[in-house]
Every structure is written in structure tokens, then in C-alpha cells.
Prior knowledge:
- The complex is a heterodimer.
- Helix content of chain A is 71%, strand content 0%.
- By secondary structure, chain A is mainly alpha-helical.
- Among the domains of chain A are: 58-121, Helicase, Ruva Protein, domain 3, CATH 1.10.8.640; 131-179.
- In chain A, helix 1 packs antiparallel against helix 6 (132-164) and helix 3 packs across helix 4.
- Chain B is of the alpha/beta class.
- Chain B has one domain: Glutaredoxin, CATH 3.40.30.10.
- Chain B has a five-stranded mixed sheet. In chain B, strands 1-2 form a two-stranded antiparallel sheet.
- In chain B, helix 3 (101-111) links the parallel strand 4 and strand 5 (117-121).
- The model of chain B has no long low-confidence stretch (mean pLDDT 92).
- At the A-B interface, helix 4 and helix 5 of A face helix 4 of B.
Amino acid sequence: MAERAGAFCARAAALLAAAVLVLGAVIATARAQTAGPAADAPAAVTAAPQAVPLSDDPALEAEVMRIAHDLRCLVCQNETIAASNADLAVDLRGQIRSQLRAGRNEREIIEYMVERYGDFVLFKPPVKPTTWLLWGGPFVLLVAMAGWLAHMLRRRRAEVAAAQAPLSDEERRRARELLGTGAE
Amino acid sequence: MKRYLIPLAVFVVLAGFLAVGLRLNPREVPSPLVDKPAPAFELARLGAPGQRVAHTDLRGRPWVLNVWASWCLPCLAEHPLVGELARSGVTVVGLNYKDKTEDATQWLARHGDPYAMVLVDRDGAVGIDWGVYGVPETFIVDKDGIIRHKHIGPITPQALREDILPLLRRLGG
């Protein structure tokens, strides 16, 4: 029994390790997605001159790219409009540029895009009732799995304890009956 | 028995999600502009650059905005259906998106011009305002200037029969 309990503990530990690994991978991917575009920002900036006439104001251009990094290109859907050279992405960068020149701030520009293309343009979707599952799902799953693991561990511990407890008088009596031995 | 039921249930749920996912078209992004007022514009007509048309000029009856370009092959594919739509009596306005005037004129001469008018969006700015992200796209606007429907990609006979024409009939087009 102790051996089984030991095997179970090993299994539980393996399961927990797997859960931690999966969660780690999820977090790493999420981080890579948010950090990714920023990491290759210089590449996108150097690629841009071929695609769009750069304005002579580097600060403005950096701001355009910063905002463009958070927006999804609708033509090549896994790219940001900063990284994409699709016509639409070039046009949308131009739109950001001209709106910045007109004195609009980042929030207003993002709102402008969302009004036209929906939340889909945002790489980071807003938290609202329709996205609660998206944002909360992984944590709900984690808590549920941890609860399940705790439940299984507790049950197994009770079983082990029960198996290791000495027999009660009543159990001894029944065992004797079943074995058909009148006396010990 | 129970130990088999749980994995089975998990499998069925997963398979269900995947089956639904397979049927979705990731290229079709629902437009937030549906049921909102059509974005404002004032554009020159193709072939009559002096004549400018604004969104307010089209109020009073349902109309269709068909975004097209001569460089767009799917536009050619849907063109006969745009003609059919126009013949049903609806005002079909063409939005010539990021095109050259001579190319657009030639294209219409070769393939027929079903449009009540064609408006020229040379730099695609009006397209962006309407949330256009690919050509062709087709919008249905009611008599009060509210967008009622957006069809992404070329119109298909099925979409024309089942979505576009019934909706226009309901709107009184």
C-alpha cells in the first residue's frame, strides 16, 4: 500500500510538473506575443522606408510605429500593421501618422480603428463580458485542476491511512468468520 | 464506467469546439459598422470629376455600396451578380478603390457598367473610413443612411439570393 501511495505521489508530482510546464508555456507565449513586436521594432522601422515615405520627424515616426504595434493587420491577420507591408497596413500607418499630426492622441486613434474594424484589430482584447472567458479561462482551469489535485491527494491519503490502521475488534471477528477459523 | 465517461465527455466537448472552429472563416471579420450610420464622404464621380457626391445625396432610399477595383480578380467574378442586383431595381453605387481612372474606365467598358454611379476613392481613405480591408466588399445602407449589412469578399449567388435581396426587399428597395 505504501508503495502504491508512493507511486501515486510520484504521479501527482509529475502531473503538477506538467501543469506548471503548460502554464509556463502559455505565459511565455503570451509574453512573446506582447514582447515580440516590440523586440523586432527596429527591423520594422528600417523596413518601413521602402513601404512608406517616412516623414522627416523621427519622433513622430517612432510614435506611429509604437501605436501600429498594438494593431492587427486585417489582411495578414497574425501580423501587426507595424510589421506588415500589405497595402492596407501601409495605409493604416499613414492614417495613424496623419491623425498624430492632427494632434490626436493614442487613445483616440485606437478608438478610431476599433470603430471601423472592431476589437479584432486589437492584439490585446479589452476585458468585457464577451471576453471574460478568454481572459479568465486559463486561471479558472488552473484553479479547477489544483482543486481536483488536492481532492485526489486527500482521498488517497485517507485511503492509505485506512489501509494502514490496525484492524478493529469487529474486523478481526469478521475476518475469523470468513476464514472459518474458530480461534486465533 | 465513470472513469471512461470523463475522457469521453472531454473529447466530445473538444471535438465540438474544433468542429465549430473549422466552419468559421477567419478572413470574415464582423464589421462593427453594421447598424451604425454610414461614414460620411464626398467623392468625385468616375468620368465626371467635376461632379461630387456626398453620403447625404443618397438618403431617402436603400442603396448598395459595392467596393471594387480593376486590379481585383474576385471583383470580376462577382460582377455579373452586381449586374443582377442592379437590374432588380436597387441603386448600386460603385466605390472604385485605389485604382487608376483609365484602368477603371476600361474595365467597365469591357465588363459592363451596372452602377448607378461610380465614386472614386483614389487613396483608399473612404475605404478605411468604411472599414474596408479587402476588395470586393458590399454594404447595404437603408434609406436613413444606416448600414444594415456588410458582405465580405465576392458576392455569391447564394448570398445574393438568401441575404442581400431579401434584406433589400425588407428595407423597401
